[in-house]
Design goal:
By secondary structure, this protein is of the alpha+beta class. The protein has two domains: 3-158 and 199-212, Roll (Structural Genomics Hypothetical 15.5 Kd Protein In mrcA-pckA Intergenic Region, Chain A), CATH 3.10.290; 159-197, no CATH class. Helices cover 34% and strands 27% of the residues. It has six helices and eight strands, in the order E-E-H-E-E-H-H-E-E-E-E-H-H-H. Strands 5-4-3-6-7-1-2-8 form an eight-stranded mixed β-sheet. Helix 4 (165-177) crosses helix 5 (184-193). The protein is globular.
Length: 215
């Protein structure tokens, strides 16, 4: 089976969090979203978006999981067709940005459609906390023997959900290290309730195998 080897790195977090994953080439971008969630350690509790810079057509391709966003985008396109904005206006600036962005449903776009031409792209998870990941296609594996995705290696513990993005995570780590801090016990209990745990390669691969096993 043909597969893609990706390096996924979480930005603006120290110590660094990264995973090297193997993904069957037949999958789509929603599948990749699910694999990244499990591999990094997220709980798929928020919205996400992939952003691909299509330099050939001078546009940004954005892939989302919710149909509502795609429908709203289509409605806005219909509006602009009927009533183009006035030149030089703020609305015209927004329109120019709009026409250079193509919003698609991740489930309907296969990896093959883009990753071979654009091997580097972004994955944003949780628009409130804004967890940005860089995704790089490192190589294509022609003789992948598994039916399920696999994490080859990785380092770093995933931040807790809803911690407040990179700044909130920095504060979380500070409190967790200081047992004398009045918030330490509360923060420790909260982290446990969020499923905060150290990265364990074997456990992550067991989860992936269970999620992707074919009956």
């Amino acid at each position: 089976m043909r597969a893609y080897q990706f390096l996924v790195t979480l930005d603006h977090v120290k110590p660094q969090v990264w995973r090297r994953i193997l993904v069957p080439a037949t999958l789509d971008f929603y599948d990749l979203h699910s694999i990244i969630q499990t591999s990094i350690g997220w709980t798929d509790s928020h919205l996400f978006i992939f952003s691909i810079e299509d330099t050939v057509n001078n546009k940004t391709v954005e892939l989302v999981g919710d149909e509502e966003s795609v429908e709203e985008n289509f409605a806005l396109a219909q509006h602009y067709m009927k009533k183009p904005p006035e030149k030089g206006s703020f609305a015209e600036e927004m329109y120019q940005k709009f026409i250079r962005t193509q919003l698609l449903l991740a489930r309907e776009v296969h990896l093959d459609d883009y990753v071979n031409v654009y091997p580097e792209f972004r994955y944003m998870y949780d628009f409130g906390d804004s967890w940005r990941h860089e995704v790089v296609l490192e190589k294509v594996v022609e003789d992948y023997m598994n039916d399920s995705p696999e994490v080859l290696e990785g380092k770093g513990t995933c931040p807790p959900e809803d911690v407040g993005g990179p700044p909130g995570y920095d504060e979380f780590k500070r409190v967790m290290k200081d047992k004398e801090d009045p918030e330490h016990d509360h923060m420790k209990a909260w982290a446990k309730s969020q499923g905060y745990r150290k990265f364990n390669l074997a456990k992550v691969n067991a989860e992936l195998k269970e999620q992707w096993c074919i009956e």
